[in-house]
């Protein structure tokens, strides 16, 4: 009987982690030809809930806080990390600063910070590392004036690799935080 208790607790914990962190699905990227001030309605019939929300958000994109200087940095939506690290690199500060400026100028903007790892390590360790990476980006943005209610940190661990390879080049691509605008993304046209 005690053996069952000891086996059930880790299984229950893993189940809770999986349903709490991995149940969030990223919105599909959809582009539309509408502009924020157009009176055109966007037909979202037949799209999934996430895709419909993303389509509506793109139709409501904002140019406020977008400058010629920060446009290229706002287009970058991925921050990469070194092996077994949640430390931001110097090259990512300008990207995150541009996103911080945009988010401060657009209080209705919301962004999901989705942490990922490479395939090495246990699932539990990688879920925690992905969360530390997402929280590291979140901390930087909050320190630079972004309201915490505009940010959501989520970890996918090693469950959603960008590159399915099993070498250093693939692992380097997979160690990342994706910045996914869920409401009022930057208008970069």
UniProtKB/TrEMBL annotation:
GO biological process, one term: cell division
Mode of membrane association: Lipid-anchor
Domain OmpA-like: 68-185
Protein's UniProt keywords contain Cell division: yes
Main location class: membrane
Record PROSITE patterns: OMPA_1, OMPA_2, PROKAR_LIPOPROTEIN
Superkingdom in the source lineage: Bacteria
A UniProt-annotated Pfam family: OmpA
Localization per record: Cell outer membrane
Tagged with keyword Membrane: yes
Keyword annotations of the record: Cell cycle, Cell division, Cell outer membrane, Lipoprotein, Membrane, Palmitate, Signal
Signal peptide span: 1-22
Family: Belongs to the Pal lipoprotein family.
Subunit structure: The Tol-Pal system is composed of five core proteins: the inner membrane proteins TolA, TolQ and TolR, the periplasmic protein TolB and the outer membrane protein Pal. They form a network linking the inner and outer membranes and the peptidoglycan layer.
Official protein name in the record: Peptidoglycan-associated lipoprotein
Organism whose genome encodes this protein: Acinetobacter silvestris
